[in-house]
């Protein structure tokens, strides 16, 4: 880092102005001539087949162009063919309008296309649909005995070490408890929509609401048998997604199907209600048994996780492994199971797996702290693990101890009266709880392009997305710093499948993945720049190796002092007006180290003793996530994730009416998310963490680490306030009053 480093500074978002002024256009905001509008009709039943769809009345409406169903749709690849969706779980992916089968309520079964959206929506109400209904099963609890271990996808982390049963039986201190979570839906601000632009020659450009334009392009090519270069998917701005846009959602193939059939541009937008038919965070039941010595040292850790999936795919994520990364324990029995239901497949949502698993682990640890009569923070320190016991590897870096220390100090944890129901503020009970957080520090292969202009301009480009975390800004900062030009000289392009290939934006891996590719591309440009600089007659850089020089402030400088050449002079010498390089970066798969981010969360709740109203009045979250490139936008990531954690703890649940096998919560009136009045003091601390092993940038990525552990800290605070242990999320007023 140079003295004038742009990295590590709280830089504001470079796309902020475009977003707040409305200049940033979202998927369904692109207007093109002759645009037709599609409205989706979804299934009213959960299981069976479509006997008949009578579309005469709909087609008779003035302005209706076409109605597409399984019986008249154009050709598409069968749903039993594995297709290239980078994020698809194992199984047979659902394909809209493929055949007459109904696999879940809210399944899309017809698309009505008209000149105006209102006409399409009205005509959709005139379809007469006859179903042959079959008995469905959506009751998770009833099916738990049919849970099975699915190992076909590398995502099952069932694991045994030692003898957990015996150690539990022998343990002087023990806790056994069962935790539950309801289904949750992502509910991003931007609705799902796709504007498929018919280019006249068979090519299609689609503005889609997605986290991965390359993934969507490849998916479309596969489903419709098109060539990749006949398709371009754009998503330069995304109004949030939380994982719901990782896989291609059905608005995309439906818009493209209609555009190709009608040789005309078509937009398909989903309603908020219809978005409850997309993926969701699976509801789950988690049984934990912890045994410990009297001093709190864990002797046994058993964790069984049962999640839900569809009949056609097996969706699961790492749920049970986390205790083996957080806490030393010789005897461990971890099992992950699935139950099949007549529902759509779940999909990734906000730290998928980790969020759920760590919730139960950290609540069970809290229960153990009371059973052993040890401070909850002390219990974590007594069991602190310096190795990942799943893979028996040390960590490349793990400043979790420092997270605990700094967050506890800021929160004032030492002033806590350990006795439940002992702290009060007027008519409110006060509770203090804490939890640990952990998330994978992932990196995937990615490419990026850097173009340096003779005037000192720099363009950075990569086909990843910015779903809200500030990727534009990160890419600009990295480009400026690594190339050695001012931030204002940098422009960034992303959200376009034609750009250098990159993975979906998710998993908190974008900065490490794309950032490493940007570093490689900038370095390639600099090598050319040095070469041309040395060509000039009497160049002061003659004989200098790449390692002998540095690039800063638009100049190449000998590190030993003295000689320097401006980028402009170097390019003039080489008669170049631009240097353009594309490069890729891949993670070090052979690393001997485990790569994780960590956090310590402390929460305060105040609960009205008579009304049961719960307020999360303070949260302090200390995060260790390698080098923090921009504390302002990284801090916003953690802040937003904590708000998501408040939602998970207190508000969010999608209830099912099992008589109809249908989510009965499917709008924002019934699906509660935290609003301003629910969010009080939140403090984010980034703990210094140096990691030279993980990647040359020392970057781990932030985002999801902010939600993992937050719900547990709040649940533990509620216990401390009330003396009542509510183990089912969300912890609503009725549960606190009843418990
Ligand atoms: Mo995230 S759930 O990988 O968008």
Descriptive labels:
739 residues, alpha+beta, Aldehyde Oxidoreductase, domain 4, Aldehyde Oxidoreductase, domain 3, 7-stranded mixed sheet, 6-stranded mixed sheet, 34 strands, 25% helix, globular, binds dioxothiomolybdenum(VI) ion
Polypeptide structure, described:
This protein folds into three domains: 16-22 and 443-585, 2-Layer Sandwich (Aldehyde Oxidoreductase, domain 4); 31-135 and 186-275, Aldehyde Oxidoreductase, domain 3 (Alpha-Beta Complex); 159-165 and 280-442 and 591-738, 2-Layer Sandwich (Aldehyde Oxidoreductase, domain 4), CATH 3.30.365.10. 25% of the residues lie in helices and 26% in strands. It contains 17 helices and 34 strands. The strands form nine sheets. Strands 3-6-1-13-10-11-12 form a seven-stranded mixed sheet, with helices on both faces. Strands 8-17-15-14-9-34 form a six-stranded mixed sheet, with helices on both faces. Helix 12 (471-483) packs parallel to helix 13 (510-535). The radius of gyration is 27 Å and the shape is globular. The termini are far apart. The mean pLDDT is 96. The site of dioxothiomolybdenum(VI) ion has 11 residues, from loops.
Give a brief rundown of this model.
This protein has 739 residues and is α+β, with helices and mostly antiparallel strands. The chain has three domains: 16-22 and 443-585, Aldehyde Oxidoreductase, domain 4 (2-Layer Sandwich); 31-135 and 186-275, Aldehyde Oxidoreductase, domain 3; 159-165 and 280-442 and 591-738, Aldehyde oxidase/xanthine dehydrogenase, molybdopterin binding domain (Aldehyde Oxidoreductase, domain 4, 2-Layer Sandwich), CATH 3.30.365.10. The strands form nine sheets. The chain has a seven-stranded mixed sheet with strand order 3-6-1-13-10-11-12, with helices on both faces. It has a six-stranded mixed sheet with strand order 8-17-15-14-9-34, with helices on both faces.
């Amino acid at each position: 880092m140079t003295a004038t480093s742009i990295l590590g500074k709280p830089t504001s978002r470079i796309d902020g102005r475009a977003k707040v002024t409305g200049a940033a256009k979202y998927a369904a905001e692109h207007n093109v001539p002759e645009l037709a509008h599609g409205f989706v009709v979804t299934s009213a039943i959960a299981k069976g087949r479509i006997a008949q769809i009578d579309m005469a009345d709909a087609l008779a409406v003035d302005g209706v162009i076409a109605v597409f169903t399984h019986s008249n749709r154009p050709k598409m690849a069968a749903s039993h063919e594995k297709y290239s969706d980078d994020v698809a779980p194992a199984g047979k992916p659902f394909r809209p309008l493929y055949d007459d089968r109904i696999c879940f309520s809210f399944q899309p079964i017809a698309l009505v296309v008209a000149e105006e959206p209102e006409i399409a929506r009205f005509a959709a109400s005139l379809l007469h649909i006859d179903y042959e209904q079959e008995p469905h099963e959506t009751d998770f609890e009833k099916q738990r005995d049919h849970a099975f271990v699915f190992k076909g996808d590398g995502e099952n982390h069932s694991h045994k070490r030692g003898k957990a049963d015996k150690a539990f039986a022998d343990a002087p201190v023990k806790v056994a408890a069962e935790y539950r979570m309801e289904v949750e839906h992502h509910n991003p601000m931007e609705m799902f929509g796709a504007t498929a632009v018919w280019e006249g020659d068979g090519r299609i450009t689609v503005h889609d609401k997605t986290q991965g334009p390359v993934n969507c392009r490849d998916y479309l090519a596969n489903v419709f048998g098109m060539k990749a270069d006949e398709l371009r998917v754009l998503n330069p701005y995304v109004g949030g997604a939380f994982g719901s846009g990782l896989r291609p959602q059905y608005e995309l193939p439906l818009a493209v199907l209609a555009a190709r059939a009608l040789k005309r541009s078509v937009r398909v937008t989903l309603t908020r209600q219809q978005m409850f038919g997309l993926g969701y965070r699976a509801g789950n039941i988690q049984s934990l048994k912890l045994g410990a010595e009297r001093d709190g040292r864990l002797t046994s850790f058993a964790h069984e996780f049962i999640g839900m999936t569809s009949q056609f795919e097996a969706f699961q994520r790492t749920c049970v492994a986390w205790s083996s990364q957080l806490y030393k324990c010789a005897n461990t029995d971890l099992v992950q199971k699935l139950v099949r239901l007549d529902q759509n497949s779940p999909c990734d949502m906000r730290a998928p797996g980790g969020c759920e698993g760590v919730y139960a682990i950290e609540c069970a640890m809290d229960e153990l702290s009371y059973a052993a009569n040890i401070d909850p923070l002390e219990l974590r320190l007594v069991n602190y693990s310096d190795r990942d016991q799943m893979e028996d590897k040390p960590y490349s870096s793990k400043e979790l101890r420092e997270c605990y220390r700094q967050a506890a100090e800021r929160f004032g944890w030492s002033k806590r009266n350990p006795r439940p129901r002992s702290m009060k503020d007027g008519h409110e009970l006060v509770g203090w709880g804490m939890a640990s957080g952990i998330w994978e520090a992932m990196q995937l292969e990615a490419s990026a392009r850097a173009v340096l202009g003779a005037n000192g301009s720099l363009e950075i480009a990569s086909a990843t997305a910015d779903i809200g975390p500030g990727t534009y800004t990160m890419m600009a900062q990295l480009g400026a710093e690594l190339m050695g030009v001012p931030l204002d000289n940098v422009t960034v392009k992303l959200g376009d499948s034609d750009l250098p290939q990159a993975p979906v934006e998710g998993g908190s891996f974008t900065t490490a993945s794309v950032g490493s590719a940007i570093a490689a591309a900038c370095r390639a440009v600099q090598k050319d720049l040095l070469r041309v600089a040395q060509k000039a007659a009497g160049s002061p850089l003659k004989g200098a190796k790449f390692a002998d020089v540095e690039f800063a402030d638009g100049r190449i400088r000998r590190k030993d002092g003295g000689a320097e050449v401006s980028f402009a002079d170097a390019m003039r010498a080489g008669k170049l007006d631009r240097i353009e390089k594309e490069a890729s970066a891949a993670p070090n798969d052979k690393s001997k180290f485990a790569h994780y981010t960590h956090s310590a969360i402390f929460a305060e709740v105040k609960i009205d003793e008579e009304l049961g109203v719960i307020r999360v009045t303070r949260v302090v979250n200390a995060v260790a996530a390698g080098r923090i490139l921009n504390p302002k936008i990284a801090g916003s990531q953690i802040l937003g994730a904590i708000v998501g954690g408040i939602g998970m703890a207190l508000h969010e649940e999608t209830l099912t009416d099992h008589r109809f096998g249908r989510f009965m919560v499917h709008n924002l009136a019934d699906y509660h998310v935290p609003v301003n009045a629910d969010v009080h003091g939140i403090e984010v601390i980034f703990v210094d963490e140096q990691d030279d092993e993980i990647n040359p940038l020392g970057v781990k990525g932030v985002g999801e680490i902010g939600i993992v552990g937050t719900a547990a800290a709040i649940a533990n605070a509620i216990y401390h306030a009330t003396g009542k242990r509510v183990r089912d999320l969300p912890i609503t007023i009725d549960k606190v009053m009843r418990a």
